[in-house]
Design a protein that fits this description.
Length: about 625
């Protein structure tokens, strides 16, 4: 039996606000010690300022987790030393009717909830919500999938895509704190659904803008037909990507900042690995107009942590989305940067190992949560039942609403909440354990977790306490169940099922000259990357793009709504990094080469918490 420790509210209050000796930053989680089969649980920080229900800047919250994981050595619980399972190329589930049903329902989230007049996709549904630019990026990715699977016609998908890209291009950009949607080509994390302007006081998000651009560039490559609609898609996508000023977003070169606000300027955090923004760095390196220096990739990988966790040796990042997002659009199978060459694997294999570690963590279930097991796992940023603490059978348990959940050797954030999207987005890496887990969860809980748009965001079998204002619904015998679907979690499920079944996104994006150039400048070699000959996506299109703006034209940030999209100032070079004159010039003048960027992060004031990250 686990050793139980009871803790009073007074003790929780005394602990609140203290720094954790394990992470060096606030941990609204449990520290657990596994020792000779015994478990002791104790709540640490319940920082409502960090994870409170009013938060509007979830990017900052995840940044804190990333910074803590990358900068301070935690106490690592090592379990067993069994060898990593062999890589399984398992096509047995590709024709599975269950997967087909999950995929079609997830597609319907984006097709039905997106405003057809503007292309804005809500952050969540059915709860009233603002739009999320990351969800828009996943929606753009969904539309070609809908064509491929026969959910919609090519014409319908192309019209929706063009509407979305035109809306995004024509939205006002500028340094003002209201009445705009972005600045320097980047977009605010959330936009109002009615006018697409900045929602509340959220940050200009570099990471979420990268997800948006990835969806646009996927559509640019997919819609290669001669019609005016498809030619417009290619031109708008190119122009949206070309006007993003990655160099401006790198105030501490060579790293890229997490975000910017008009009143506080750049956030005091830069993106460093390992996390979900490999994609961001590839796009920033591949930019035809404002590329960052190749040294940025070395800076990003400098903070990598390679250790063993539940029998697997791999790079650590606690929430599962860090192992999914970049892989939605980039096929990392068989290609390696210098770090992965030194480890003898690729990033695809790294994600596969995390799948097994998550599964084995849930099987051991060191914290004793209800419902965990070999077919019931999945830990990522997701909804939760409540920001509260309860005494359950003599153990004081902390619970959270939206929280960056995850398990790893750098950080454990586990309150008994399971997110099916953490499993669905992992299907290509380990279908042999991910698909059975999804099936088992659907079979066990039925329409409590699986309905209109597939799987709801999360559920928690341990939490059975009735709430005055529950987020979701509570079954007094089976637990808490979310009633919302989230775009940023529906997206990876849909996209990764399609990648597993047909490899549509991967094969399409392997033709993108921007992705190819970005990977090459980051030092990736091998596999499919050694056998590509990219061409300019717009110049090679059957229909020519709008002409380039004259030299006297205003900068993109100052263009009034309705201005036609601009052709890129310089087409991407298919040659290796050294052959890109513009990149070389900017890099030579950049302070990136001085190596002055610091890995030390200063905590930002704790913002209020949004419905999700």
């Amino acid at each position: 039996m686990p050793e139980k420790s009871r803790h009073s509210d007074a003790e929780g209050i005394r602990n609140r606000g203290k720094r954790s000796d394990v992470t060096g930053w606030y941990r609204a989680s449990y520290l657990f010690v596994v020792n000779v089969g015994r478990m002791r649980t104790r709540p640490t920080v319940a920082s409502r300022g960090l994870y409170s229900s009013a938060c509007l800047m979830r990017g900052a919250l995840l940044a804190v987790s990333v910074a803590a994981a990358g900068c301070v050595a935690p106490s690592v619980v090592r379990h067993h030393d069994t060898p990593a399972p062999e890589t399984v190329t398992n096509a047995a589930y590709r024709g599975d009717p269950f997967l087909a049903d999950v995929e079609s329902r997830s597609f319907e989230y984006f097709w039905r909830t997106t405003d057809a007049r503007t292309g804005l996709t809500p952050d969540r549904s059915p709860s009233p919500s603002f739009s999320s630019i990351a969800a828009i990026g996943f929606a753009l990715t969904a539309y070609p999938i809908g064509v491929s699977e026969g959910y919609v016609t090519r014409e319908q998908a192309a019209e929706r895509t063009l509407t979305t890209l035109r809306t995004l291009y024509e939205l006002p950009q500028g340094p003002a704190d209201t009445g705009v949607s972005g600045y320097k080509g980047f977009y605010y994390h959330f936009l109002n659904m009615d006018n697409a302007h900045r929602f509340a006081r959220v940050e200009l998000s570099t990471g979420d803008t990268a997800l948006l651009l990835a969806g646009a560039l996927f559509c640019q490559q997919y819609f290669d037909g001669p019609s005016a609609t498809e030619a417009g898609i290619r031109a708008y996508a190119d122009s949206l990507y070309a006007r993003v000023d990655w160099q401006w977003a790198s105030p501490n070169p060579p790293a890229v900042s997490l975000g910017w606000t008009p009143d506080s300027a750049f956030m005091p955090y830069d993106w460093r690995g390992y996390n979900e923004v490999m994609l961001l760095y590839v796009l920033a390196l591949g930019s035809p107009t404002h590329p960052i220096a190749p040294a940025s990739w070395a800076e990003y990988t400098r903070t990598y942590r390679w250790e063993e966790y539940f029998g697997q040796s791999f790079l650590s990042f606690a929430p599962a989305f860090g192992y999914q997002y970049s892989h939605v659009w980039i096929d990392f199978r068989g290609i390696q940067d210098s770090y992965m060459r030194s480890r003898g694997i690729d990033y695809f294999e790294n994600s596969r190992r995390d799948v097994y570690a998550q599964r084995d963590y849930a099987t051991l279930n060191p914290m004793g949560w209800k419902g965990y097991g070999a077919d019931a796992w999945g830990f990522t940023a997701c909804d939760g039942p409540a920001d509260t603490a309860l005494d359950l059978d003599g153990v004081y348990r902390w619970f959270h609403t939206y929280w960056a959940r995850g398990v790893s050797f750098t950080r454990t954030a586990d309150d008994g909440t399971i997110s099916p999207s953490a499993v669905g987005g992992m299907i290509p890496f380990a279908p042999e354990i991910a698909v059975p887990a999804l099936r088992a969860m659907q079979s066990t809980y039925g329409n409590l977790i699986y309905s209109t748009y597939g799987f709801v965001d999360a559920f928690n079998p341990t939490f059975t306490q009735p709430l005055r204002r529950p987020l979701g619904r509570v079954d007094h015998s089976r637990g808490w169940f979310d009633t919302d679907y989230l775009g940023i979690d529906e997206g990876p499920v849909l996209a990764m099922i399609e990648n597993y079944r047909t490899e549509l996104i991967w094969t399409t994006m392997r033709r993108s000259p921007y992705v190819i150039r970005g990977l090459q400048r980051a030092g990736f070699t091998g596999g499919w990357l050694d056998h590509v000959t990219p061409a300019s996506p717009v110049a090679a299109s059957p229909a020519a793009p709008p002409p380039a703006a004259p030299a006297s034209a205003k900068p993109a940030d100052q263009q009034p709504p309705g201005t036609p999209p601009l052709a890129p100032a310089q087409p991407p070079s298919p040659a290796p990094p050294a052959a890109a004159p513009q990149a070389s010039g900017s890099e030579a003048a950049s302070p990136a080469a001085t190596g002055t960027a610091s890995n030390t992060t200063t905590p930002a004031p704790a913002p209020a918490r949004p419905p999700n990250r």
